[in-house]
């Protein structure tokens, strides 16, 4: 828990607004998406209010993206501590997963407030359903997926530091291959399989379908995401265990 508190506090420790940025960032991002993708590019939102549509994608995507990028350099960033004190190395990436879960909870609260406003307003096209109960499963799946991927990249970045920069760029590109700023229904033709092959697609779509009633839901694709998560977590753990003894020597 000390690592969790450290990760959470250090993010905005020397900022004027502090934790308020947890609210400001998704709000500014949503406003930007509404202007650029909603009003300029005229991307479809399946008839849903643009604010709640984009916020639903941002909320779920940010947890995955931030956890993955932060975890990918955890061993390189904490090499000095690893060399001085012995403790279970896995606690470091786990602390990032949990601290980002706290951030997700804050941003989810913001999304929930916007969602509730449009729901009570009526005539917004929002039709939540029982799949909301799957939200904890979706969050856990994202956390474990980002943990597994993060452990793989953290092991690699101890030797190849350029991978950390490439990963940040790759995560940004991956967002456009995930239905965050557009509905899956807008992707047709021969490239649709590429989007469906992305394990984050079914998670984002299920989350959006559960709360907004728009989009698509498939047990098959959700099972695919769960299976991918299990495989990548096992693979990440194996790679981590093989290289952890040489972390302090290679960083």
TrEMBL record:
The organism's lineage? Bacteria, Pseudomonadati, Bacteroidota, Cytophagia, Cytophagales
Enumerate the Gene Ontology biological process terms.
lipopolysaccharide transport
The entry's keywords: Cell inner membrane, Cell membrane, Membrane, Transmembrane, Transmembrane helix, Transport
| Domain ABC transmembrane type-2 per the UniProt entry, residue ranges | 17-243
Q: Quote one Gene Ontology molecular function term.
A: ABC-type transporter activity
Keyword Cell inner membrane recorded: yes
A single GO cellular-component term on record: ATP-binding cassette (ABC) transporter complex
Residues that span the membrane, as ranges:
20-41, 94-118, 130-156, 163-182, 221-240
Which InterPro entries does the record associate with it? ABC2_TM, ABC2_TM_bact-type, ABC_2_transport
Its subcellular locations are: Cell inner membrane; Cell membrane
Family, according to the entry, reads as follows:
Belongs to the ABC-2 integral membrane protein family.
Q: How does it sit in the membrane?
A: Multi-pass membrane protein
Name of this chain's protein: Transport permease protein
């Amino acid at each position: 828990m000390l690592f969790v508190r450290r990760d959470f506090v250090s993010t905005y420790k020397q900022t004027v607004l502090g934790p308020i940025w947890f609210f400001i960032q998704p709000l500014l991002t949503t406003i930007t998406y509404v202007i650029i993708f909603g009003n300029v590019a005229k991307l479809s939102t399946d008839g849903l209010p643009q604010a709640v549509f984009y916020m639903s994608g941002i909320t779920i995507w940010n947890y995955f993206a931030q956890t993955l990028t932060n975890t990918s350099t955890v061993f390189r960033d904490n090499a000095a501590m690893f060399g001085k004190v012995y403790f279970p190395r896995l606690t470091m990436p786990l602390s990032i997963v949990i601290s980002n879960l706290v951030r997700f909870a804050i941003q989810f609260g913001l999304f929930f407030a916007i969602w509730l406003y449009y729901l009570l307003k009526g005539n917004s096209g929002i039709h939540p359903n029982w799949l909301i109960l799957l939200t904890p499963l979706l969050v856990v799946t994202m956390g474990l997926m980002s943990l597994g991927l993060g452990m793989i990249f953290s092991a690699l970045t101890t030797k190849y530091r350029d991978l950390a920069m490439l990963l940040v760029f790759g995560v940004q590109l991956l967002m456009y291959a995930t239905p965050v700023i557009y509905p899956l229904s807008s992707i047709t033709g021969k490239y649709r399989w590429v989007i469906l092959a992305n394990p984050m697609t079914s998670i984002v779509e299920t989350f959006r379908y559960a709360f907004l009633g728009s989009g698509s839901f498939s047990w098959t694709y959700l099972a695919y995401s769960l299976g991918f998560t299990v495989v990548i977590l096992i693979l990440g753990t194996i790679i981590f265990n093989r290289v952890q003894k040489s972390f302090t020597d290679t960083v």
